[in-house]
Structure formats: structure tokens, C-alpha cells
Design a protein that fits this description.
By secondary structure, this protein is mostly beta strands. The two termini are about 25 Å apart. Helix content is about 0%, strand content about 55%. The chain has a single domain, classed as Jelly Rolls (Sandwich). The chain has strands at about 15, 20-25, 30-35, 40-45, 50-65, 65-70, 75-80, 85-100, 110. β1 (about 15) and β2 (about 20-25) form a beta hairpin. The model has no long low-confidence stretch (mean pLDDT about 95).
């Protein structure tokens, strides 16, 4: 298996309604490119993975634990393992990249979508 990948060749997966991810998994981490529809909601959840991200397009209202922030392109976040968090997407949608450690093995069961070009690159 090659160590190289192309974002457009990664199979998109439905994470939540209005939230589609493309991910590549290593032995110690998962890197995901996430596209969020305008007005999409990521419900409060927590997981055993540390999560680090950067917003590259659009806007988000992001709550991590008790703290809420309005994010714009260039904003970064770090979510420790098992900390509840949720996201509301702005009117123009959003594109972001996130790193998860350990890898998101739970994503193996997500619905796979038809291949299409990635829009956030």
C-alpha cells in the first residue's frame, strides 16, 4: 500500500446529516478533511480520541466543554479525549481539517457516499 494519497480519491463518508468527511488512517492517528453544509449541526458528543483542527473556509460556532467561540478561517482548536463538544455551522458552510489520535476506528462503520471531488482543497 502506498504512503501517498489524493484527497479526491478518498471515499467520502457521511458523519452526520450535512457533514461529510474524507479520511486517511495511520497507525497512530487519523487525518480528516471535513465539509459541512450551511446551517448543519454537529450534536454534542465525546470520544476517546484527542482532536486537533483548523478551519479553512466558512464559519463555525464551536463549543468545547464549557467554552464557546465563533471561529473563522485560520482558527485552531484542541479537544482533549472525552471532552463534550458541539458545532453549529454558519450560513456559508465550512471546510476544515482535523487530526485524531488514536485513529478513528469507529468511522469504519459510517455510510460511504459516491465519490466526488473534494471542495475544501
Amino acid at each position: 500500500m502506498s504512503p501517498f494519497h489524493d484527497l479526491d480519491e478518498l471515499v467520502p463518508q457521511q458523519i452526520w446529516t450535512g457533514v461529510v468527511g474524507r479520511s486517511v488512517h495511520g497507525a497512530e492517528a487519523t487525518l480528516a478533511a471535513i465539509e459541512l453544509d450551511p446551517g448543519a449541526e454537529v450534536p454534542e458528543h465525546a470520544h476517546p480520541n484527542e482532536q486537533i483542527g483548523v478551519l479553512v473556509r466558512g464559519s463555525l460556532t464551536f463549543r468545547i466543554g464549557p467554552e464557546t467561540r465563533e471561529l473563522r478561517p485560520g482558527s485552531l482548536w484542541v479537544i482533549p479525549a472525552n471532552v463534550p463538544h458541539q458545532v453549529s455551522v454558519g450560513p456559508d458552510g465550512a471546510s476544515l481539517y482535523e487530526l485524531f489520535s488514536p485513529p478513528r476506528t469507529d468511522w469504519a462503520s459510517l455510510d460511504r457516499l459516491e465519490p466526488s471531488p473534494a471542495t475544501g482543497s
